[in-house]
Specification:
By secondary structure, the chain is mainly alpha-helical. It contains 12 helices and no strands. Helix 8 crosses helix 9. The longest helix is centred in the last third of the chain and has 23 residues. It is globular and about 50 Å long.
């Protein structure tokens, strides 16, 4: 979890670097704590959250954690793909969860080594697991490893928030997002957290008012 003093330093830097972040901070609620414990369980949860609504992901995750106890690679692998699908997973995600569990048990992926590695090495190792792409790797690094300069440019909510804040008519592309965020180093993780909060408090609120 980022300390209050670290957040203040990051906020000051972001505001000085990009005045639009002063606007965002003036209209959003305090940033929620997005930190989660590192390990197999949380990484599996992030896989479940891929490309579905938060509500759908939460419902599936509730069923999974109720059934798979303790939530370990060994216990998960007792469930075949059909049984995992009965808990709400798609066929692909059932494969992905089993692949992650297998890679950990067979020591192709050693999560406990990650704190010693550079960002690029963590991303490379995670992306070797079937079903883990850049977004999943980046979210894990932000939430579980406390990395302060991660920028998941392909995240749709992040793109929507940045586009709204900058007055764009359409969502920025991944390339545009990377360009916009380059000056925000070394606090791109904090910038992303601000924009996610801005998306909930401002972008979604405006959408609800229009419907």
């Amino acid at each position: 979890m980022t300390s209050a003093s670290d957040l203040t330093i990051a906020f000051d830097y972001l505001i000085e670097t990009d005045a639009d972040f002063a606007t965002a901070l003036s209209v959003i609620q305090p940033l929620p704590d997005r930190s989660k414990p590192p390990g197999f369980k949380t990484l599996t949860e992030i896989i479940v959250e891929q490309q579905v609504s938060l509500a759908s992901a939460a419902a599936i995750w509730k069923r999974m954690t109720a059934a798979i106890s303790p939530f370990t690679p060994e216990t998960l692998l007792k469930y075949n793909e059909t049984e995992l699908r009965e808990l709400g997973l798609s066929q692909q995600k059932a494969k992905y969860c089993r692949a992650l569990a297998t890679d950990i048990l067979e020591k192709r992926l050693i999560l406990s080594n990650f704190p010693e590695l550079e960002d690029s090495a963590v991303i490379e190792q995670l992306m070797q697991v079937k079903g883990i792409g850049r977004w999943t790797a980046e979210i894990y690094m932000m939430a579980c490893l406390g990395h302060t300069d991660i920028w998941p440019a392909g995240d749709v909510a992040l793109q929507s928030a940045m586009g709204h804040l900058k007055g764009y008519d359409v969502r920025p592309t991944i390339e545009q997002m990377d360009t916009l965020a380059e000056p925000l180093r070394p606090y791109r993780t904090i910038a992303a957290r601000i924009l996610w909060r801005y998306y909930v408090d401002v972008v979604q609120t405006e959408k609800r008012k229009r419907t």
